[in-house]
Specification:
The complex is a heterodimer of chains A (135) and B (283). Chain A is of the alpha+beta class and 135 residues long. Helices cover 33% and strands 26% of the residues of chain A. Chain A has helices at residues 46-49, 51-56, 77-95, 110-124, and strands at 3-9, 18-24, 27-33, 65-68, 71-74, 102-104, 129-131. In chain A, strands 1-2-3 form a three-stranded antiparallel beta sheet. Chain A has a two-stranded antiparallel ribbon with strand order 4-5. The longest helix of chain A is centred in the middle third of the chain and has 19 residues, at 77-95. Chain A is flat, with a radius of gyration of 19 Å. Chain B has helices spanning 2-10, 52-62, 74-85, 122-127, 135-138, 143-155, 162-166, 194-202, 212-216, 223-238, 275-282, and strands spanning 16-23, 26-33, 68-72, 94-98. A four-stranded mixed beta sheet of chain B has the order 2-1-3-4, sandwiched between helices. The radius of gyration of chain B is 21 Å and the shape is globular. Classes of the chains: A alpha+beta (135), B alpha/beta (283). At the A-B interface, strand 1, strand 2 and strand 3 of A face strand 2, helix 2 and helix 7 of B.
Chain lengths: 135, 283
């Protein structure tokens, strides 16, 4: 019997509520709000309360899919990233870098957001960067 | 207490012990086991209160034979006794280490997260219900005002289901609050007041007045007050003190036989005809 309680941060929005996962025998069975967390003070919204369900969902994608011949085919990460890179290069060469825009998210960290805009500006060469929270 | 718990684990009286430990500056629930017995030295009581008995039900759902020890405040004790009554836990498999309690109608001051009375905002004072009131305090408002105050509280609801999710005595597989034919899905606020009243009715004979629901409510609806009113009715009608009575609750699952008799009706002596006696005579 292995029973652990893992503190974490809710991944649904940018608020950053503290959650506590109940992990029994390696499986997340429940999500609780962290009572002493300064952001949410023991409260959560409906999405936070159900985090364990999307972790355990059988619909969850666990590896990349490439659409070929009208259907999705499971591939490994290297192949998927290579394909994305090749297609991006193709678009940049044909239509110019401004044909690409990058949308980042409140759900990822500041550092990842920084990397994403760096990727847009330095690698692709466009200023088309926007954010899901800029409504 | 730590020595006792070590002994329980070593002697196999319990297979695991649910308590609290400081993790990254937060008092979090922790599962102490025999293999890591030195961790018991880090056991704390902690100001934060989690529903350890609900965690215990999750564990026993997967391992029915496991023996569980846990820290128990008064509210945990009451919750455990309700869970025993409803066959969610087996009293022979649970052992508690009792610790000091939090404020409730019985105790004015304690040392956990619930809930020294907070200052009340002016708007809520004018149109809402004071969370620290008792049911009889609300009798001061006339009925339309009471309704409008409760409706103000209910319409704030964001339907997070936090009150149900955190509740130590909510264990139903299928919840009426999620039933699309009873409660319209996808609407915010939920159908008020029926959403809250359905839950309130289901709390009759179950609610152990721990206050976790109110603690978890993002919009501060005075749920504890609402459910204590419901339980007041249960006491008056059936003489059933939820959490301290060891009998089956007067409200049983559909099809189960009701075990408790209603208390004899208190009829004003001026009224000569006692309806229950009159009924018997007729028969």
């Amino acid at each position: 019997m292995d029973c652990k309680f893992m503190p974490s941060i809710c991944s649904y929005c940018g608020t950053g509520c503290g959650v506590l996962f109940e992990v029994i025998d390696g499986k997340i069975v429940n999500t609780l709000p962290m009572k002493t967390h300064p952001v949410n003070e023991g409260k959560l919204c409906i999405k936070g309360w159900n985090l364990h369900e999307h972790v355990n969902s059988y619909l969850r994608l666990k590896q990349p899919l490439i659409k070929a011949f009208g259907r999705f085919i499971k591939v490994d990460w290297d192949e998927a990233i290579q394909l994305a890179a090749d297609r991006f290069r193709e678009i940049v060469e044909t239509y110019g870098p401004d044909a690409i825009g990058i949308l980042v998210s409140a759900k990822i960290t500041n550092e990842e957001n920084y990397l994403a805009q760096k990727f847009a500006r330095a690698v692709i060469g466009t200023n088309n960067v926007d954010h899901c929270a800029r409504l | 207490m730590k020595d006792t718990i070590k002994r329980w684990l070593e002697d196999g009286i319990v297979d695991l012990f649910l308590g609290y430990k400081m993790v990254m500056g937060h008092p979090l629930p922790h599962c102490f086991v025999k293999e890591k017995i030195e961790e018991v030295d880090e056991l704390i009581v902690g100001i934060a209160r989690y529903s350890l008995e609900k965690i215990a039900t999750h564990i026993t759902a997967l391992k029915p034979d496991i023996k569980i020890g846990m820290l128990a405040r008064d509210c945990n004790q009451r919750a455990l006794s309700v869970l025993y009554i409803w066959n969610q836990l087996n009293p022979e498999q649970v052992r508690t280490a009792n610790v000091n309690c939090c404020p409730s109608n019985l105790k004015e001051h304690g040392d956990c997260s619930y809930l020294e009375p907070e200052t009340l905002g002016i708007f809520k004072q004018q149109v809402g219900v004071n969370n620290t009131h008792h049911p009889q305090d609300l009798e001061g408002y006339d009925q339309p005002e009471r309704l409008s105050r409760w409706m103000y509280e209910f319409q704030k609801c964001i339907k997070c289901y936090g009150c149900r999710n955190i509740c130590p005595v909510c264990f139903c597989q299928e919840c009426s609050l999620e039933h699309p034919e009873l409660i319209e899905s996808g609407a915010l606020p939920p159908e008020v007041p029926i959403f809250h009243l359905v839950r309130a009715v289901h709390m009759a004979g179950r609610c152990i007045d721990c206050g976790l629901c109110e603690d978890a409510c993002p919009v501060d609806i005075p749920l504890r007050l609402l459910y204590s009113k419901v339980n007041e009715i249960v006491v008056n009608l059936f003489d059933y003190e939820t959490g301290s009575s060891a009998d089956q609750s007067p409200f049983s699952m559909l099809g189960d036989k009701v075990t408790l008799e209603p208390k004899p009706l208190q009829i004003n002596p001026a009224e000569t005809a006692n309806p229950s006696i009159a009924l018997q005579e007729k028969n």
